[in-house]
Prior knowledge:
single chain; mainly alpha; two-stranded antiparallel sheet; 10 helices; 4 strands
Amino acid sequence: METTFALLNFKESLCYIYPPTEPVRYVSSIVALNVHSPNGTGDWHSAKALSDRAYPEKFYIYGENQERNTNHLFGDNGIIDGTDRLNKMGYFPENIPVWLADHPRACVDYLYTAVLQTGSIGRVILDDWFPSDEDKQSVYDLLNQIEPHLNTQEWENLQLWKRKNPIM
């Protein structure tokens, strides 16, 4: 009986239930950062972050009609069909395709909502997810795009964050 229950839980975890996504409503933040990237960037807690209901949808679903939305800053730049990446990791979502932010976009989405808008500077640490200077530069490139559109407080928070997360 326990083996059957464990197998059912395992199968459920491989069939992660993402809500329907599209290029304007997509998976981002820490959940997208845990989907493997060919660049070797991102977080390394995939089993936890990708388990069903690890986070409330409002935390990782970004875009149109969502509490968290950076489309006004980026459009669909950095939004990819992540279905194949999830399948290669052993996850087979019911709602496909799964549109998600690539790692630079996911990082900047998270940075914008969790740091720039709140002032909680230590919540996003670039070195944790982007090992090389080139990888870090991809994040800075996106930040350079949004900088002119930030309000004074967001801009000040970004400058402080950059001092704590430099590209060496």
